[in-house]
Amino acid sequence: MALQKPLEDYIHFLERMTTRSLPLLNKLATPGMHFHDPLHDVHGVAAVMEVFAQKLSNLTAPRLRVKDFCWGREQPVAYLRWDLTGQKDGESFFEQGISEIMFSNDGYVMAHRDYLGSLVMPESAPTLLQRLRTRISGKLRSKSA
Asked: What number does CATH give the domain 4-119?
């Protein structure tokens, strides 16, 4: 597939992303790149770099690792399955997610959409897993008391 190299370049960028490497996004994306996740919906490479910089500033020693990917059937879209590890607020975390990356026909990233778990969700909106953990730990505490 003609877009394999641009995908590999973008994965390389994501896995090694730091605040210093963010300007490399200008070489990989269209100027009007769209980024969307549960907390952000921005257009333009500069705005995407701001979101990435904000995410990096909230984490200590973040490490994103793309575990697998596949191509869409009808569009120039790749789906990435990834793990993210690091520390947030002094506590270690492990997060898994999927990203949908849309490419232009000439190999530039046009859109990046993240489907994430509980790490990025506001605390006022706990996920089902968080609610289950709270309920189970509460029941375990009441049984041991």
From this structure: 3.10.450.50
